[in-house]
Amino acid sequence: MSKPFAISAQKIFDGTRWHEGAALLVENTRVKFIGPISEVPEGVELRDLGTGIICPGFVDLQVNGGGGVLLNNAPDVEGIRTICATHARFGTTSLLPTLITDTTEVRNAALDAAIQARRENVPGFAGLHLEGPHLSIARKGAHDAKLIRAMNGEDVTTLITAHENIPMLMMTIAPESVTPEQVAALTKAGIRISLGHSDASHEQIVPLMRAGANMFTHLFNAMSQTTGREPGMVGTALSAGYASIIADGHHVHPTSIKLALAAKQNQNSKIFLISDAMSFTGTDFTELVLNGRKILRQGGKLTLEDGTLAGADIEMASAVRFMHRQIKVELGEALRMATTYPCAAISLNDAGHLAIGAPADFVWLSEEIEPLATWIGGEQMAR
Questions:
Q1: Could you tell me if 81 and 373 are in contact, meaning their C-beta atoms sit under 8 angstroms apart?
Q2: Which residue is catalytic, options 60, 102, 276, 361?
Q3: Shortest CA distance to 127 belongs to which of 159, 87, 166, 77?
Q4: pLDDT tens digit sequence for 121-169
Q5: Which pTM was predicted?
Q6: Are 320 and 334 in contact (CB under 8 A)?
Q7: How many Cβ atoms are within 10 Å of 68's Cβ, its own excluded?
Q8: Is 276 a catalytic residue?
Q9: What stretches of 50-103 show up as alpha helix (H) in DSSP?
Q10: 46 DSSP β-pair partners
Q11: DSSP label at 350?
């Protein structure tokens, strides 16, 4: 058990409010208090960082890879460990490694890896996100059409059984490939359902929301759009439910982001940030292979050889910077989009804030919103 310590910076954001002239006290891996530096108990080490911001560590619900590792290509605990460690360097302290549509064998390997990652308490690992294979070919994006298929009874049983040993299991599915009964069974078991990669109409979507689906994956991308007489998935997402968004300047136009934020302004369910990062994060790689197809990195974006967007070349700090600088979102709100709101979407109550008793998962950001250091459970992560 490590000794208690206190840490201070120019500002501390606890997830709700800003503190100045304050210190964060860490004891037994958790937050003991945030208060005036003068109230730090005598004998407790005080680490004064001087400038910058201390804030809750980022929570990323869609991380395909990092550090040269793509979960599809390394569906094992070491792959998960590398992905989590890489994103910790960029301020993410809780994440869901995400498996893109693949074979049943690869899916099962990823489920087993998630179970092992939980047993080994891999720092930063919060659960698993399965994006597919139960999607719509019409809105497949970079997913391999040959591997997209409808959900069956065996899938439901396998997923529910695996979830018993995985802290959080999230799935992106399309109404075209599942039934409301299947969604009800999954959500009753505690599996979180997000809708995406779909060409469904409003009438097709609503029964799945009634069955327990409460999220939408990468708003505006790979989903049916809104028209005057058909809300589509975009309009349905803006009217109810949480929605993730990729804020990189390539996936969604700034004006569309502003419209989406305005639509959600008075709702409890919010828009939250995801990185949708691939294995490029933390490397200088320029290409990778997914399901036998090349993904190219150029001009700040990732594409298949035909130009189809294939994940994003960002991490969460970059998304926060984009929201604050380009969309002009107040910094505290931009930080909430990377902490509070994703946690609310999946009821991850023990993350995304620095309230008393919360895990001491936090990041030190420069005034330019660049991650300088990250702590998980009060332990500073390697850079």
A1: no
A2: 276
A3: 166
A4: 999 999 999 999 999 999 999 999 999 999 999 999 999 999 999 999 9
A5: 0.96
A6: yes
A7: 18
A8: yes
A9: 77-88
A10: 6
A11: T
